[in-house]
Specification:
Elements: H1 2-16, H2 18-22, E1 26-28, E2 35-36, E3 39-43, H3 50-57, H4 61-67, E4 81-85, E5 88-89, E6 97-101, E7 106-110, E8 116-121, E9 124-125, E10 134-143, H5 151-159, E11 179-183, E12 189-191, E13 202-204, E14 208-209, H6 212-218, E15 227-231, E16 235-240, E17 243-248, H7 263-273, H8 275-278, E18 281-283, H9 285-294, E19 300-305
Parallel strand pairs: 6-15, 9-13, 12-14
Antiparallel strand pairs: 1-8, 2-5, 3-4, 6-7, 7-8, 10-11, 10-15, 11-12, 16-17, 17-19, 18-19
Helix pairs in contact: 1-3
């Protein structure tokens, strides 16, 4: 079929499945709702990659890899069933403004009028250039921005034999993409990109990178002054349909989370911390152990309501 034909086929499929696939981005939200979205399965075509499928269906690279263990992300193979991980437990944070959960590589936006949540995959800071944790706000917005690379970035490029200009003007070569939102926190920015590969990965110098179509949708919805909360929650709990759900992502170790041998203990600590939520449920410790080991990023039921 070829790369172009595969892209057309998936685009047509996404159009035919418009309602469910759109739920990967925007969700109606009841006041006490804690779990959103749905999981979908599709069949890969011969030349598909996770990067291609993520771009078409709205997912990041790492979450596609985590949800599809054992499948080659660069050549899944004709007819292989691929999971699109569109179900999420909302981060444990106020439903206000923007929330970025770093280990999830995902941004959530709660519009001021309420009743819905919009979510996109994001690229975050690479090791040694970690994205910050904390509460800030959108200080400034700009369309068609120029990029003024800081001296540290210019020096890094120079060490690799590449000379960066002091200013990169707007256009297809600008790493800021078509829009940016400066945070009132150092030099950190939420912005588009000139490289779609890297969405949902650790690729930036600490900023938050969205696909251009996503930042184009988000930009007009976010007023200056909007609160931005950046959290580090590899383990999330939520109640949905009278069941207790758990979602496990690979922790970002440089932020102080435990090594792999201690991750089940970390999940148990979360359950103890949320004892008031957990108290009404009978827990399945076998499933909890499997999830702590697998780190697939897909919510699963770990508890049924005690009668």
């Amino acid at each position: 079929m070829g790369r172009f034909g595969s892209f057309v086929r998936h685009t047509l499929l996404a159009t035919l499945l418009a309602a469910p696939i759109a739920q990967a981005t925007e969700h109606r939200l009841a006041p006490d709702q804690q779990v959103i979205g749905r999981i979908h399965q599709i069949e890969a075509q011969f030349q598909d990659t996770f990067a291609d499928l993520g771009e078409i269906y709205g997912f990041g690279q790492r979450e596609m890899e985590a949800a599809n263990p054992g499948i080659d992300p660069w050549l899944p193979g004709e007819g292989v069933e691929i999971t699109l991980p569109g179900k999420h437990i909302l981060p444990d944070a106020p439903r206000e403004g923007i929330v970025v959960n770093l280990p999830e590589y995902r941004l959530y936006f709660f519009p001021p009028e309420g009743g819905r949540v919009i979510t996109y995959p994001v690229g975050i800071g690479r090791e040694g250039w970690s994205s910050p944790i904390g509460v800030t706000r959108v200080a400034r917005k700009e369309a068609n921005p120029s990029w003024y690379p800081p001296q540290s970035i210019r020096e890094e490029y120079a060490r690799n034999g590449e000379i960066l200009p002091a200013v990169v003007p707007p256009g297809p070569d600008n790493p800021m993409g078509p829009y940016k939102m400066n945070l009132a926190l150092g030099a950190y920015v939420i912005h588009g990109t000139n490289k779609n590969y890297g969405i949902g990965m650790r690729v930036s110098s600490g900023c938050f990178r969205l696909r251009n179509e996503d930042i184009t949708r988000l930009f007009p919805l976010v007023p200056v002054g909007t609160q931005v909360r950046i959290v580090n929650q590899p383990f999330k709990l939520g109640v949905h349909e009278d069941q207790l759900w758990l979602e496990v992502h690979t922790p970002l170790d440089e932020h102080g989370f435990p090594s792999s041998v201690d991750r089940q203990a970390a999940v148990q600590s979360l359950l103890e911390e949320k004892r008031d939520l957990v108290a009404g449920f009978r827990l399945d410790w076998r499933v909890i152990g499997e999830m702590a080991h697998a780190e697939e990023g897909i919510p699963r039921v770990i508890g049924t309501r005690l009668r």
